[in-house]
Amino acid sequence: MDCFADKILIDKSxxxxxxxxxxxxxxxxxxxxxxxxxxxxxxxxxxLKTVYNESFKHRCGFEVIxxxxxxxxxxxxxxxxxxxxxxxxxxxxxxxxxxxxxxxxRGRFAITYIPYIIVLKPDGTLVSxxxxxxxxxxxxxxxxxxxx
Length: 148
Hints:
Layout: E1 8-10, E2 16-18, H1 19-23, E3 28-34, H2 41-57, E4 62-68, H3 73-82, E5 88-89, H4 101-108, E6 116-120, E7 126-128, H5 131-138, H6 142-147
Parallel strand pairs: 3-4, 4-5
Antiparallel strand pairs: 1-2, 3-6, 6-7
InterPro entries: Nucleoredoxin-like, Thioredoxin-like_fold, Thioredoxin-like_sf
EC number: 1.8.1.8
GO molecular function, one term: protein-disulfide reductase [NAD(P)H] activity
């Protein structure tokens, strides 16, 4: 998907990988736009982790990517390390950077508030632009909705 072309993702250990290497065999991308300061973020992360773990058992090919709105590297590091999912993230960049990848991706999908989740196929096809509602109404059954 071209919104991740030439992008780097990091894992919890801080290891940096090319996005195309991380996402190459995935069937569904779950983009999580969030900050540690979002109201209800812990509950949302718990629900997302349950869905992710269940999808992993069934080899659904989901990958969650955090696009953080933290304002400092320290806040980003704390939030990413305390998230309870084995996910990837765009590395922290100062919001003042003219080419911030997080700003670019938020703009591409017209994200105006957080938390927000969108679900995409690798070719960029939008599966759900209201994925938080999907999670809250369908629970674990969202796997079926996001894989069809």
